[in-house]
Amino acid sequence: MSIDTATAARVAKLARIRVEEDALPALADEFNTILGFIEQLGEVDVEGVEPMVSVTPMRLPRRADEVTDGNQQGKVLSNAPDAREGFFAVPKVVE
């Protein structure tokens, strides 16, 4: 498959990318290079190879799913201009 300048212009329009008319041939060449790489990947024999999500076959450690307040109340409120009784204090805006 080969990408011409008209197709490159259409792709740029669909992607909402403004490409100047004189830059379209270079963009078409870049698309063709990318398609060439994809064709090379299609030639690799992966028969019998199991899909993987990581290079190392290890399970990531997980923490217990517990609801907490994070024990960060003091740190969060330390930057507040006005804090009262453990909450942000703000001016009244509704009468």
TrEMBL record:
Gene Ontology MF term list: asparaginyl-tRNA synthase (glutamine-hydrolyzing) activity; ATP binding; glutaminyl-tRNA synthase (glutamine-hydrolyzing) activity; transferase activity
InterPro entries membership: Asp/Glu-ADT_sf_sub_c (IPR036113), GatC (IPR003837)
Reaction equations catalysed: L-aspartyl-tRNA(Asn) + L-glutamine + ATP + H2O = L-asparaginyl-tRNA(Asn) + L-glutamate + ADP + phosphate + 2 H(+); L-glutamyl-tRNA(Gln) + L-glutamine + ATP + H2O = L-glutaminyl-tRNA(Gln) + L-glutamate + ADP + phosphate + H(+)
Keywords assigned by UniProt, alphabetized: ATP-binding, Ligase, Nucleotide-binding, Protein biosynthesis, Transferase
SUPFAM superfamilies, A to Z: Glu-tRNAGln amidotransferase C subunit (SSF141000)
EC number: 6.3.5.-
Protein's GO biological process: glutaminyl-tRNAGln biosynthesis via transamidation; regulation of translational fidelity; translation
Broad class of enzyme this protein falls into: ligase
Family: Belongs to the GatC family.
Function: Allows the formation of correctly charged Asn-tRNA(Asn) or Gln-tRNA(Gln) through the transamidation of misacylated Asp-tRNA(Asn) or Glu-tRNA(Gln) in organisms which lack either or both of asparaginyl-tRNA or glutaminyl-tRNA synthetases. The reaction takes place in the presence of glutamine and ATP through an activated phospho-Asp-tRNA(Asn) or phospho-Glu-tRNA(Gln).
PANTHER family reported for this sequence: GLUTAMYL-TRNA(GLN) AMIDOTRANSFERASE SUBUNIT C, MITOCHONDRIAL
Subunit structure: Heterotrimer of A, B and C subunits.
Protein name: Aspartyl/glutamyl-tRNA(Asn/Gln) amidotransferase subunit C
Originating species: Roseovarius nanhaiticus
Lineage of the species this protein comes from: Bacteria, Pseudomonadati, Pseudomonadota, Alphaproteobacteria, Rhodobacterales
